[in-house]
Amino acid sequence: MSNKKMGVIESRFADFIWNGEPITSGQLVKMAEKELGWKATTSYTVLKRLCERGIFQNKDGAVTSLISREEYYALQSEQYVDETFGGSLPAFLAAFGTRKKLSDKEVAELQKIIDGMRG
């Protein structure tokens, strides 16, 4: 999974794809030029890297995702918890809770998620 990591700017570029797929590589280049100030060569280089990482594919000029945005961020979250907290979600939440207290609404939302994860 580590080869699928993206930096902040790559993530913005990826959002262009996720938000507009299928999108032509030409449309993608125009968006990156307008929104990021990139030259076409930069866009094609970043697209190639993201395709090599198995996140997107560029077939016949049409760019589509191989994994959804939600799946990508779920995998990134899992990896972070694994690497930083030894895979312990309770340890992650405990660390998070030391700096930020949860509102009753947030607690209720988390409880619904937990209840939904139970077999």
The geometry reads as elongated
What is the distance, rounded to the nearest whole angstrom, between the alpha carbons of the first and last residues? 26 Å
CATH architecture of the largest domain: Orthogonal Bundle
CATH class category label of the largest domain = Mainly Alpha
Output the helix-strand order.
HEHHEEHHH
CATH topology of the largest domain: Arc Repressor Mutant, subunit A
Structural class of the secondary structure composition? mainly alpha
Mean pLDDT: 92
Largest beta sheet: strand ordering: 1-3-2
Helix tally equals 6
Fraction of helical residues = 55-70%
The main β sheet shows up as: 3 strands, antiparallel
Low-confidence stretches: none
Rg, nearest Å: 18 Å
Q: What's the β-strand tally?
A: 3
CATH superfamily of the largest domain: Winged helix-like DNA-binding domain superfamily/Winged helix DNA-binding domain
Strand content: 5-15%
Overall tally of structural domains: 2
Oligomeric status: single chain
Structural commentary:
The chain is mainly alpha-helical. 66% of the residues lie in helices and 8% in strands. Strand 2 (56-59) and strand 3 (62-65) form a beta hairpin. Helix 1 crosses helix 2. The chain is elongated and about 45 Å long.
Summarize the helices and strands and which ones pair or pack:
Blueprint lengths: L7 H13 L2 E2 H12 L3 H13 L3 E4 L2 E4 L3 H17 L3 H9 L6 H14 L2
Antiparallel strand pairs: 1-3, 2-3
Describe the structure using short key phrases.
single chain; mainly alpha; three-stranded antiparallel sheet
